[in-house]
Amino acid sequence: GESVGLHLPTLSVQEGDNSIINCAYSNSASDYFIWYKQESGKGPQFIIDIRSNMDKRQGQRVTVLLNKTVKHLSLQIAATQPGDSAVYFCAEANNNAGNMLTFGGGTRLMVKP
Amino acid sequence: DTEVTQTPKHLVMGMTNKKSLKCEQHMGHRAMYWYKQKAKKPPELMFVYSYEKLSINESVPSRFSPECPNSSLLNLHLHALQPEDSALYLCASSQTGGAYEQYFGPGTRLTVT
């Protein structure tokens, strides 16, 4: 069952504003990073990924920024919509260590109409 | 087709029951995964299959038994579970040979009574 008192970090934004979700990672050997969106009752959905030879990658309405110096990853969502409301997870992997993803704790994004 | 399917969607079982969870993908991926996800937590890796062989077992109790009958199918056999095993069980697949995005199924919501 659920853990009483456990809260996900929550970001609340107004519809139409830009959202920035942050993630710190700890393994300096990680060279592949990925963002997932998980809506209630569904599995995680791939949003965007980035390899360590890049510091920025853009998709449709989303941008991922990677700062390897401070081991920080961010996801920017432009013109946030109610359908963006979900929990967002970052994950990291080491390309030489195969397929294992290590997930961050998650951030809940709430979009106010 | 980037779909991973899982059945059943919901499962309620007693502690003496034996049941199986099923997962299927037709993306030609040769790596498949089982994750367990508790409420408000990120997915936790349980097992990894690579080319139909078990490559990673993250110290999962023996009451969970994975099986990979072929490159498209992944099963998780359940026996003598405990109430604390109640969770969302997620299947994922990816390419092999390095770190790539994993595609997740919708999950099976398991309740152990």
Describe this entry's structure for a reader.
With 113 residues, chain A is mostly beta strands. Helix content of chain A is 0%, strand content 50%. Chain A has strands spanning 10-14, 19-24, 32-38, 45-51, 56-58, 62-67, 72-77, 86-93, 102-103, 107-112. In chain A, the strands form two sheets. In chain A, strands 1, 3, 4, 8, 9 and 10 form a six-stranded mixed β-sheet that branches. Chain A has a four-stranded antiparallel β-sheet with strand order 2-7-6-5, with no helix packed on it. In chain A, strand 6 (62-67) and strand 7 (72-77) form a beta hairpin. Chain A is globular. The termini of chain A are far apart. The model of chain A is unreliable at 1-5 (pLDDT under 50). With 113 residues, chain B is an all-beta fold. Chain B is 0% helix and 57% strand. Chain B contains no helices and eleven strands. Chain B starts with a strand and ends with a strand.
Summarize the structure.
Chain A is mainly β. Chain A is 0% helix and 50% strand.
Structural class of chain B: mainly beta
Largest interface, counted by CB within 8 Å of the partner chain's CB:
A-B, 32 and 31 residues
Poorly predicted tracts of residues of chain B: none
> What string, H for helix and E for strand, traces the elements of chain B in order?
EEEEEEEEEEE
Number of helices of chain A: 0
The stretches of 5 or more residues of chain A where confidence is low (pLDDT under 50) are 1-5
Order of helices and strands of chain A: EEEEEEEEEE
Proportion of β residues of chain B?
over 45%
- What Rg of chain B do the Cα atoms give? 13 Å
DSSP summary, beta strand count of chain B: 11
Mean pLDDT reading of chain A:
91
| Form type of chain B | globular
The largest sheet of chain A, given as strand count, sense and whether it forms a barrel, is: 6 strands, mixed
